[in-house]
Amino acid sequence: MMPDSVRAMTLATALGVLAIGSIYVYETAPLSVVAFALAALVVVAAWQPAVALGLTAAALPLYHQPFQTGETVLAPSELLLAAAAIGTVLRIAVTTARPDLAVTGNQRRAQDVFDRLATRFGVATFAGLSILTLIGLTLLAGVEDPDARSAGLREVRWTFVEPLLLVALLLWQVRTPRHRAFVLGAFAAGGLFVAVWSLADAATGGGVSVGGVVRASGPFPHPNALGLYLLRPVAFGAAFLLVSRSRSRVAWLLCGVGAAALVGSLSRSAALGLLVAALLLLPWMTRRMRMFGALAAAALSLALIVVAGDRAIGASGTDSLALRTDIWRSGLAMIRDRPVSGYGPDQFLYVYTPRYVDPVAWAERFTSHAHNIVIDSWVRVGIIGAVLAVLALARVARSAGIVVGQGESGRIDPLATAAIVTLAAAGAQALVDNGYFVHDLAMSAWLLAWAAFGRSTASQRRGALLHERNRDGRSGSRRLASL
């Protein structure tokens, strides 16, 4: 029989999926149905907080498929995140009101919560996102176009405020290795769901025709958007299976399904990210795996050139790789005009098209981002945004180098290692495409950052201290030094 905690998590997951699914039954869900679903999700969050956060992670790629009630449009991940926050408040209120808890017990609990939130990762996250939120709102105050202001406010909510809330809830509520594995497993499961959707859509005549080639898109409006998001769960799943030395054929088959959908998107930036992930994972590959991977990559590249032709080599009109350079040049011109403040969140399109678009890049005049995370951050939130983007890329690159250096030392957390490899792959992709300023990309970036760097909880430190105390041969002075 399953342990009680596993049974509870399973039941809570089923209830949460049923609540979200009930909304999608209607084209425009009645307010009563949305209220019922929210109430059910709040119960799930108060009962099993990790389940609510895992469902939030799984629902991230569905933000392009929002549900509507009246004039309100919400992504499933936003409703789940709101339910997780309300459930957390309810859980705190119920726990605090319990008469069997002494005041000292409440104080210890409050101190434990503070310790988990006040990690180096937590403080840096709260400080960085709070600064970006304030800068973004300040810049939006000077925007004259109401449409531009509303778009900017939405981006602030999607990419600054909601990721901040997600990180806070993850640090606060995810307390055990099982819960951590559940949240990250749900993230991977959401990617698998999108992959199956994309492959089924392409097989039944769906997808998007770009440059004479049909590309898989699934629930996303464009194949590039599918490639941008799907790289992350696919790279995470493959990295975890390699690092943990899993021999499960089913798990590898599911990972292959995700990779097939990623290839079907024909996203060149996703291919770059996969290449970076593969290079970082070489220490965990056997010689046979390396040889097989090289042959498979060569065969796949040849097949894409034959089938996709100009798209694969970047020579077709609107898909020319030279367009990237033209867009970067325009982005740098924007920065020269406003080097300190930038133009505000989600203002790239509103400035690029009327003032900075190169006539050579006229086919891409409706692009909404600079196709480079540093330039894009600088244009949107000024020089501070660019500095934070560079620091983030440097931190990920340094951590990836450490991971590769450790190799098969056996002292590596597979989940954290997989998250670091995935962040490095996403960072490489972000240098030539959108890397952050969309809801699913921003939320998944911080989810992976939490998995990679946000694990120094109070309970883990106490466990490490207990381990040190129990080691043979420890003197009192060495124990004190360990403390």
Describe the protein.
This protein has two domains: 1-101, no CATH class; 123-455, no CATH class. Helix content is 72%, strand content 2%. The protein contains 20 helices and four strands. The protein has helices at residues 4-24, 31-47, 49-58, 76-97, 103-117, 120-140, 146-173, 177-203, 223-243, 249-264, 268-280, 287-308, 310-313, 322-337, 348-356, 373-406, 414-430, 439-453, 458-470, 476-482; strands at 67-69, 72-74, 208-210, 213-215. The protein has a two-stranded antiparallel ribbon with strand order 1-2. A two-stranded antiparallel ribbon has the order 3-4. Strand 3 and strand 4 (213-215) form a beta hairpin. Helix 2 (31-47) crosses helix 4, helix 3 runs parallel beside helix 8 (177-203) and helix 8 packs across helix 9. The longest helix has 34 residues, at 373-406. The two termini are 40 Å apart. Mean pLDDT is 83; it is low at 456-483.
List keywords for this structure.
two-stranded antiparallel sheet; single chain; mainly alpha; 4 strands; 483 residues
